Amino acid sequence: MIKLHQLARTWGIPNLSHFCVKIETYLRMTKQPYQVVDSLPLKGPRGKLPFIVDKDKKVSDSRLIVNYLKSTYGDTLDAHLSAEQKAIAKSFQRLLEEHLYWISMTSRWNYTEANWQTNKKAIFSVLPPVARDLAALVYRRRINSQILGHGIGRLSSQEAFDLGKEDIDALADFLADKPYFMGDKPTSLDASAYGILVNTLGCPIESPIKDHALTKKNLVNYCQKMQAEFFPELAWGGTNS
């Protein structure tokens, strides 16, 4: 059975890690048996989560994990898409994972002190106090360095959030009234979309990007529907745990 290493559940959503949500959602969408192993990023082969262990193979990076799962167990989600649809799905995946994700990270790690304390408690509270504070300091510096290197960290908060609002508008306009991003059937894009969006509008991290996303009723309904369909054990709205 596949072992999925990820952060412990919190906030009433599948995971506070966008990419842990993506992989667990993908596994549930494909009905692939798996076992969750609560872990911390420092235990990951790339210093990040999630990663999976399948038999004697360890795979990290959510993009590589999905590719591995498709090549090993078959592509049951995207095989029906045309080449054009696959190109569109890939483009939206990149928007979500390579742009909107980083704006979401900005809101958690260096936007307000309240957000940082909420984030810190959720991730590091499992550690003893001294180790918790040290680990939080080290990872905060590391993440902020990555945000800076990406380029989003070189913008003002207002500039970054304005760009994020453009992403939200594009996602809402493309989804329109469809049940899933690519039509009537869920695809791997939905695993990415739900992972990023639920960690934008469904968690207790406050920001202008969250406020804007909450005005898009179709995106809110989409996240609620995805959670009800693939994580029925989690009641929507439990973001205060």
Structure in words:
This protein is α+β, with helices and mostly antiparallel strands. It is built from nine helices and four strands, in the order βαβββαααααααα. It has one domain (2-230): Glutathione S-transferase Yfyf (Class Pi), Chain A, domain 2 (Up-down Bundle), CATH 1.20.1050.10. A hairpin with a 2-residue loop joins β3 and β4 (57-60). The protein is globular. The relative contact order is 0.16. It comes from Candidatus Methylumidiphilus alinenensis. Residues 19-113 form the Thioredoxin-like fold domain.
Amount of beta strand? 5-15%
Which topology does CATH recognise?
Glutathione S-transferase Yfyf (Class Pi), Chain A, domain 2
Shape: globular
State the total count of DSSP E strands.
4
Quick summary:
With 241 residues, the chain is an alpha+beta fold. It has one domain (2-230): Glutathione S-transferase Yfyf (Class Pi), Chain A, domain 2.
Describe the secondary structure blueprint for this structure.
Elements: E1 2-6, H1 18-29, E2 34-38, E3 51-54, E4 57-60, H2 62-73, H3 83-109, H4 113-124, H5 129-150, H6 157-175, H7 188-201, H8 208-214, H9 217-230
Helix pairs in contact: 1-7, 3-5, 3-6, 3-7, 6-8, 7-9
Comma- or semicolon-separated keywords:
alpha+beta; Glutathione S-transferase Yfyf (Class Pi), Chain A, domain 2; 241 residues
